[in-house]
Amino acid sequence: xxxxxxxxxxxxxxxxxxxxxxxxxxxxxxxxxxxxxxxxxxxxxxxxxxxxxxxxxxxxxxxxxxxxxxxxxxxxxxxxxxxxxxxxxxxxxxxxxxxxxxxxxxxxxxxxxxxxxxxxxxxxxxxxxxxxxxxxxxxxxxxxxxxxxxxxxxxxxxxxxxxxxxxxxxxxxxxxxxxxxxxxxxxxxxxxxxxxxxxxxxxxxxxxxxxxxxxxxxxxxxxxxxxxxxxxxxxxxxxxxxxxxxxxxxxxxxxxxxxxxxxxxxxxxxxxxxxxxxxxxxxxxxxxxxxxxxxxxxxxxxxxxxxxxxxxxxxxxxxxxxxxxxxxxxxx
Length: 332
Known about the structure:
36% helix, 3-deoxy-D-arabinoheptulosonate-7-phosphate synthase, TIM Barrel, alpha/beta, aldehyde-lyase activity, 2 domains, 4-stranded antiparallel sheet, Aldolase_TIM
């Protein structure tokens, strides 16, 4: 695609309307400001449209154009009832991997609130490697999660795996999570793009940076601008000591390429509770705009992924250290 930067929004809107009228089925994007994107120069030639000399034409644009910095130079800031995500904000998403009981999620919500987090995570529908493993409590889990989030004035974030579950989950959650295994579930991405609640999109375990950006583009192209990206480690040749390899360089690379907020999930990258803290601190140092961390008061008793869960006390310490790192970088 190529991008046209018009002298002002009125000129951009005029050209957009003219192109849509002449070629209603063509891909024509308008950012409601002064930028248009079209398939190629041939469209203008075929329609015999001459551009004025003050129109800037960028011939080579990334495939994920709406996710790109060229299309949207300013950082996207996502606002919810309790959270500002993106820009200079540092957002903490925390909670158990799975909703286990009403009492437990309330206890975890209390702990999450105490650390300064604003988003309570937890799964009620769990994608598991083995079909016989615990798959989550479904709607009962969603109800408990919603009640706990409301009780402690937190936003609720939970995973969606299937378009068939959309209406049910939409009735409870504030933020949708797309897990690594569903990063390229294009029907699901389109569904989430057709509504306006924020979507946390995790990078697939074998996905490239461009794969992740193109997945985000599906949501943006369908009309939802409220997307944030989560690096959670990728598969490499060595997985003996960590569950995945955290691509720490993905943070500055993505922040150069896209305006979307970039967070890190050190829990899934590590796969071991003693590695969560150093990866979380490295994430803060590299400039991540937030963290997504699994906690449990008794990790060894957790129904899912107890090996990578840390205690609320450990999370509180991590957040204190993270704040110190960010303050040091700001002062430096």
